[in-house]
Predict the 3D structure of the following.
Amino acid sequence: MPGVTSPSQPFGVLLTAMVTPFLPDGSLDLEGAQRLAAHLVDDLRHDGLVVNGTTGESATKTDAEDLAVLRAVLESVGDRATIIAGVGTNDTRHSIEAARAAATAGAHGVMAVTPYYNRPPQEGLVRHFTAIADATDLPLITYDIPKRTGTAIELETLQRIAEHPRIVANKDAKGDLEFAQWGMATTGLAWYSGDDVLNLPLMALGAAGMISVVGHIVGDRLAAMAESLASGDLSTAAGINASLLPVYTGIFRTQGVILTKAALEMQGLPAGPVRLPLVDATPEQRSVLRADLARGGVPGFSAA
């Protein structure tokens, strides 16, 4: 698998859940996706990228569009970064089909979010994730984000599914550090932070890395933070984290895709509009974001 990986960090340390650039008319900007992927990997030091996740606006893209974006990103950086395809839906059969299509396209792994809206019981989650893992030879990341899906993955469920040889990691956006510690201690899964403000705390507790959103803007500083922590220099890591607090806050003042795309556009990078029911950042939101990024020390931004 490309990228910097190890058995304890199967997808590397720093990944970002990449936005999907669109053209002004709302259609895919595949050339822009390739340029953005190259920027993240070559300039901002990413080990990997997750495409077609929440930040990639998977909820408003077709299966054909998802495959087109995946193929474009693989062509751009697949030889030097780990590319994970988001395949999670609230329909197990649909997710299986998406996983198989991603495998055929050449993805290095797949990520499946807890099924949303239909709120399955824990036994349903076990069968759902196991069925997806059975469908391909790719490693699978589960994605636990109950504030979006309405259903949390319980500890016993994670312990059960971790017995599957291809379920190797969990993306944790639960916001529960006590649960995370139990999960890391008892499942054997590689733990990836899915909540940027908790990247450092989770890695200090033993997480493998992070699947970020602010990595679009400050990936190089996140990589430096992780390196400092790994070398035992907690003071430097904590200082970097503290300097990034305005960025964490700024990108998530409203839905993260909206302000990430606004920030990328301000930097002259491919982004484009969001798709309804999301709406683009207002001038007022952009002004606040500019000030947040300036306070966070992001080059090229000022409060003016």
About this structure: The beta strands are 14-17, 48-51, 82-86, 109-113, 140-144, 167-172, 190-193, 209-212. Residues 234-251 form the longest helix (18 residues).
